[in-house]
């Protein structure tokens, strides 16, 4: 395939964006006086900004490119899963947000020690940290891989631009810098999706009407065969169940989202954050799928513009580089960088919060706020470097088929964590040993299912969550509870 020159103007636009993000990190660096500032922003974040940050954090560059590709090659069924996050918000509002606000936690996993014991805290925290170091590597690698065929920037340079700059501005600005850069990046992502769709509409004969007519004619919205139940395929019922448990994991047990609950100055602002996120989830993903439909219509009318044996997974960056005006193309590529950086910077700060709170502060003598801040920044750099090294290794070894395998591990790690929080919050009879047994059985069950069956990976999170809750409930009478009834009552609903 012919490499398209990125062009001077596009380079300028991309570099201006990267410089602006660095300046945001530098601006908030002066406010980072203690670990509370670095991980909680001193409660200075307004709810609407925290909401945009949650949206940007959960939308990676791979999502930004893969959703249009899926709508282009397949259908819109994955759109239904996006709305599950909205459905669970009342549940999160009523039960989890008051809990996290009341306990004033830095790490969400502090709760698991209060409710069970230090083993459960360390299991969840270490699982989160390892998963997110891997997530940083995968997102950086796949972003570089997706852009490499279309722009004259080497993949290692892309890894450097994404990874190293994330480390620098997260190191300087803490969670406050991360959230405000997320705001910029979230707005860029949303504006880019709308802009691309509008521009393609002007280039398709018949405009928007023709775009949606062609998709309907090709049965690319919600095909009837995707409505049936399946144990192995990602049909609509499977997607709905899988996304339900994945959303529960994100909003109740994942530090990168839960951390946003404690950066505002009141519970009302925290709830406003999730309402803002819900509004964005309700609107923006539709545009990503509409972009895929528009690309389908455009290349149906202009098939000669697609190279022979083209890999349609890169259809969005290919269109941006080959068809959009200079400057605008640079802005869209900057938005792809933004999608990657928003996810990575959130992972870096959350890993740092977990290690500082769950390992460094938890063990040993009393630590000063300044010591916690110093260690938090050191962990930010260490986690970022490990992610960059891992993504560099993936590029050099030309690994493939990583994303599906990595997604399947969300159920392995995320399911038991979600189950632990659910068990702790709702099951008073549960205790530390029944929770531990639940985790062991859940992990063993998922590993067996993954190795011995063709069950769809969306079920892994379901299995992990439910097995922990059921085993923890059933086996609780076999073990003595180390906490008093009053302590348990204060930590449960």
Automatic annotation (TrEMBL):
Subcellular location, record wording: Cell membrane
InterPro entries (UniProt xref): Na/Glc_symporter_sf, Na/solute_symporter, Sodium:Solute_Symporter_SSF
Membrane topology term: Multi-pass membrane protein
Main subcellular location of this protein, as a coarse class: membrane
Entry keyword Transmembrane: yes
Classification via CDD domains: SLC5sbd_NIS-like_u3 (cd11495)
Keyword Mitochondrion: no
Pfam families documented for this protein: SSF (PF00474)
TM spans (from-to): 6-28, 48-67, 79-101, 122-147, 153-175, 187-208, 228-246, 280-299, 319-339, 375-396, 408-427, 434-451, 457-479
Family classification: Belongs to the sodium:solute symporter (SSF) (TC 2.A.21) family.
PANTHER family reported for this sequence: LD47995P-RELATED, SODIUM-COUPLED MONOCARBOXYLATE TRANSPORTER
Protein name: Sodium:solute symporter
């Amino acid at each position: 395939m012919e490499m398209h020159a990125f062009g001077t103007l596009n380079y300028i636009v991309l570099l201006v964006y990267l410089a602006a993000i660095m300046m945001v990190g530098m601006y908030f660096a002066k406010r980072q006086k203690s670990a509370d500032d670095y991980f909680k922003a001193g409660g200075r974040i307004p709810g609407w900004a925290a909401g945009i940050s949650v949206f940007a954090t959960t939308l990676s560059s791979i999502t930004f490119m893969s959703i249009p590709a899926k709508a282009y090659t397949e259908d819109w069924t994955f759109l239904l899963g996006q709305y599950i996050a909205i459905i669970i918000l009342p549940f999160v509002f009523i039960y989890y947000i008051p809990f996290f606000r009341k306990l004033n936690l830095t790490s969400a996993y502090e709760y698991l020690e209060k409710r069970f014991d230090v083993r459960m805290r360390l299991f969840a925290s270490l699982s989160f940290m390892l998963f997110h170091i891997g997530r940083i590597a995968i997102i950086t690698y796949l972003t570089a891989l997706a852009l490499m065929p279309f722009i004259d920037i080497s993949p290692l340079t892309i890894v450097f631009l994404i990874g190293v700059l994330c480390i620098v501005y997260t190191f300087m600005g803490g969670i406050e810098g991360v959230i405000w850069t997320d705001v910029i990046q979230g707005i860029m992502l949303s504006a880019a999706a709308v802009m691309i769709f509008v521009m393609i509409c002007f280039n398709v004969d018949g405009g928007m009407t023709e775009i949606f007519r062609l998709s309907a004619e090709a049965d690319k919205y919600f095909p009837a065969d995707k409505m049936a139940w399946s144990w192995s395929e990602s049909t609509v019922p499977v997607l709905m169940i899988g996304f339900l448990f994945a959303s529960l994991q994100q909003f109740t047990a994942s530090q990168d989202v839960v951390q946003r609950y404690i950066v505002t100055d009141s519970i009302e602002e925290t709830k406003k954050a999730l309402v803002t996120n819900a509004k964005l989830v309700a609107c923006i993903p539709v545009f990503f799928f509409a972009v895929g439909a528009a690309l389908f219509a455009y290349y149906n009318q202009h098939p000669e513009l697609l190279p022979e044996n083209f890999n349609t997974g890169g259809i969005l960056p290919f269109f941006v580089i080959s068809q959009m005006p200079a400057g605008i193309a640079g802005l869209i590529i900057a938005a792809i960088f933004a999608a990657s950086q928003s996810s990575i910077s959130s992972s870096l700060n959350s890993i740092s919060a977990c290690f500082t709170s769950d390992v460094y502060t938890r063990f040993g003598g009393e630590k000063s706020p300044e010591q916690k801040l110093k260690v938090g920044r050191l962990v930010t750099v260490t986690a970022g470097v490990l992610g960059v090294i891992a993504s560099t290794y993936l590029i050099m070894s030309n690994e493939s088929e990583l994303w599906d395998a990595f997604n399947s591990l969300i159920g392995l790690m995320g399911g038991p964590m979600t189950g632990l929080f659910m068990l702790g919050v709702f099951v008073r009879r549960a205790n530390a040993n029944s929770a531990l047994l639940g985790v062991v059985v859940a992990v063993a069950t998922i590993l067996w299912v993954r190795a011995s069956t063709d069950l769809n990976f969306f079920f892994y999170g379901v299995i992990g969550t439910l097995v922990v809750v059921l085993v923890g409930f059933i086996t609780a009478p076999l073990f003595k509870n180390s906490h008093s009834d009053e302590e348990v009552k204060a930590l449960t609903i």
